[in-house]
Amino acid sequence: MHWYTGNTTYDTVLTLGLVIAGLVIIGGLFQQSPYGRFGSAARGLKLNPKLGWWLMEIPATVVFVVFYLTGPRRFDVVPLVLAAIWLLHYGNRGWFFPLSIRQVPGKVGSFNVVVLAFGMVITTMHGYLNGAFFSHDYKHQYGTEWLTDPRFLVGTVVYLGGFLLLVRSESIVRNLRDKKNPGASEYKIPYGGGFRFVTSPAYLGELIAWAGFALLTWSLAGVVIFLITAGNLVPRAFATHKWYREKFSDYPAERKALIPGLI
Q1: Which residues form the 3-oxo-5-alpha-steroid 4-dehydrogenase C-terminal domain (predicted)?
Q2: Residue 183 half-sphere exposure, CB side, CA atoms within 13 Å?
Q3: pLDDT tens-digit profile of 111-146?
Q4: What is the C-alpha separation between 144 and 178, in angstroms, rounded?
Q5: By 3-state DSSP, what share of the chain in percent is helix, strand and coil, each rounded to 5?
Q6: For residues 74 and 87, what is the distance between their CA atoms, to the nearest angstrom?
Q7: DSSP calls for 184-243
Q8: Cα–Cα distance list, 16 to 8, 82, 122, 227 (Å)
Q9: Cα–Cα distance for residue pair 241/198, rounded to 1 Å
Q10: How far is 31 from 42, CA to CA, in rounded Å?
Q11: Model confidence over 191-211: pLDDT tens digits?
């Protein structure tokens, strides 16, 4: 079976996505994306973190829905199941996560317009590639038998495991900051959950989730998401690990950066 779908627009965007993934992987080796603790102070207008995250992630939901609804199989069972998994992920990432951020009052330094613009391009591309692929079923693989295919079943288990690790890890970090006094201490050492083993369990959860998603959808669109995520988060996890060790003298020595017991 060919890698391409035969739809010129879709295949062009997919090829562009693979190229971007390669550039992100290469770029991540040299510099961290300037947001959060690695936020850059030299690239112009700053944004409130809540607004920045929401604007950056919202195309993944909106664009996905728009293009999903253009497909002839939009009301078929398997495309609807895949769409539900997508919307579960971005309901958390694009809506719940930004709105639940506990930030230092008045802080506007975690996002800038460069990060926002690039992030919106990526999430727009993700939304299109997956929304169109599911409801058009370009590869004619999403019949009802797909729901019992080993790739879908194993991929779904892997995805849900990663998603739960991601959500739990973000909850632990969020609750480090007191609701009544969010500015008391900007950074603390997190404990519990995946933090017993690695510095960045949320990153690990995100990577596991997208690996599972690529498997359960059996699509290059899923591979593109995984590669871009890995290119961004893997080097960021190592930089975060180094940052914690330098900032906190009592940081747990047994913790690895990203993979329990290994690295």
Answers
A1: 113-262
A2: 4
A3: 677 778 888 999 999 999 999 999 999 999 999 999
A4: 48
A5: 65, 0, 35
A6: 14
A7: S-S-----SGGGGTBS-HHHHHHHHHHHHHHHHHTSHHHHHHHHHHHHHHHHHHHHHHHH
A8: 12, 23, 11, 13
A9: 9
A10: 14
A11: 999 999 999 999 999 999 999
* Amino acid type, 108: V
The DSSP letter of residue 94 is I
Instruction: Record the pTM.
Output: 0.88
Q: List CB contacts of 110: < 8 A, sequence separation 6 or more.
A: 35, 36, 39, 47, 49, 52, 103
Rounded CA-CA distance 116/102 in Å is: 20
What one-character DSSP code corresponds to residue 179?
A: S
With a CB cutoff of 8 Å and minimum separation 6, the contacts of 162 are: 204, 205, 206, 207, 208, 209, 210, 211, 212
Q: Is the pLDDT of residue 184 over 60?
A: no
